[in-house]
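Translate sequence into structure tokens.
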Amino acid sequence: MTLVDRVLLLITGLVALYLIWRLYTAHQKSPKTAYLLYILSFAVLFIAGVLLIIFGYGLLESPWVAVVTSLIPLALATGLVYDLKPEWAKGYSIYAVIGLLLVAVVYLGGIQQLAKIVMPIVHGIAGLTIVLLPLWAVKEGLAPGGFVLVSVGGVLIGLGGIALTFLKLGKQFLFFSQDFVFAILAPLLLLMTLAYAWGIVKKLLAG
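Result follows.
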């Protein structure tokens, strides 16, 4: 990992902390389950970024990292459902818990064949939720236009997540070689976090 990567990860962490503070403040004024789930997602992102700065990209080889970082898309997607489609919240929460448990079983149990099935499904559903739900909310007038950037963040991290998953399984996704993935990972995480922060703060300001 280069010095530039560490600087970009540090900035990513600071943006995540800012977003956590904004969400905590909003939750204090108007308690919502969605805010708590958003906070969980960005807290995990912050901790993951700090650990990457300290230990480097070799940390991504740990099965525990795959399990814990799955909380980022799952918590964010579930938060969006609570925020925008509360009637789906109970069912989606069940999916998120089962999905996280399945990821834990296949990675901590070293079941590589199942990992090839479980990870794309679990992360794919969460990713589609993050991309599509904000677009729908803006179209329906339930969120300001800037909230679309949450969808952009979902697309960015979706590409990085798919590439990392393929690398963990010993394969290459399109032109995403290991060197290329590690070269773009820190900038990708920063752009994703900035997109999420901009979109979510815009929605918070809109009320």
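Note: Residues 6 and 53 are 5 Å apart (CA to CA).
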